[in-house]
Specification:
Number of helices: 4
Radius of gyration: 16 Å
Shape: globular
Strand order of the largest sheet: 2-3-4-7-8
Helix content: 25-40%
Strand content: 25-35%
Oligomer: single chain
Structural class: alpha+beta
């Protein structure tokens, strides 16, 4: 089922999310719905807060990035097969010199900015069957994970921008929260005027 994506300005996007118990009701169904919602919006990742749930869960499918011909065959292969759910994840290490990449977000449509992140991460998480994993990712794979991980920490990519950049996009962000934009996927706007 395709769920509405929560727009910028909703308090759920600024909350640090809570861990999920192993007996969380209908977890597999929720994960399926998140993938479906992400695909409907042409995203490569979506976190539970983006559908209004303050829980530590995100899903990614980095396959669209594998089309980039500037990437090595190894990177393309990694991105093509990187489809998974991360439950109760913790980034245990981020290493390397920060690099910039132009990021966007389903909750902040039509806003793209360069964000600096470390190139390599090690993350611990549980899969859908609650098996624990510790894995290391680099490059675009690490970035997709870092972006979604930020969501469950209550951080948006716009929070990482300079004060000047934030000022330049402020009116755009206000329009998004009011729903004064055109989007080709379902969204829920926190400050939209209620129809009478």
């Amino acid at each position: 089922m395709i769920l509405p994506v929560v727009a910028y300005g909703d308090p759920v996007l600024k909350k640090k999310a809570k861990e999920i118990p192993q007996d969380y009701p209908k977890l597999n169904e929720l994960i399926e719905n998140m993938f479906e919602t992400m695909y409907a919006a042409y995203g490569v990742g979506i976190a539970a807060p983006q559908i209004g749930l303050p829980i530590r869960l995100f899903v990614i499918d980095a396959a669209p990035f594998a089309e980039d011909e500037d990437l090595s065959a190894e990177d393309q292969a990694q991105l093509k097969s990187l489809k998974k759910a991360f439950i109760n994840p913790t980034i245990v290490e981020e290493v390397g010199d920060e690099w910039a990449f132009n990021e966007g977000c389903l909750s902040i449509p039509d806003v793209r900015e360069d964000v600096f992140r470390k190139p390599e991460i090690t993350i611990e998480y549980y899969d859908q069957d609650f098996n624990k994993h510790t894995e290391t990712y680099d490059g675009l794979a690490a970035r997709v994970i870092q972006h979604e991980y930020d969501h469950i920490e209550g951080v948006l990519f716009t929070d990482k921008l300079s004060t000047l950049k934030k000022r330049l996009i402020k009116s755009k962000l206000q329009k998004i929260s009011k729903g004064d934009i055109r989007v080709d996927y379902r969204m829920r706007f926190p400050n939209a005027k209620k129809a009478r």
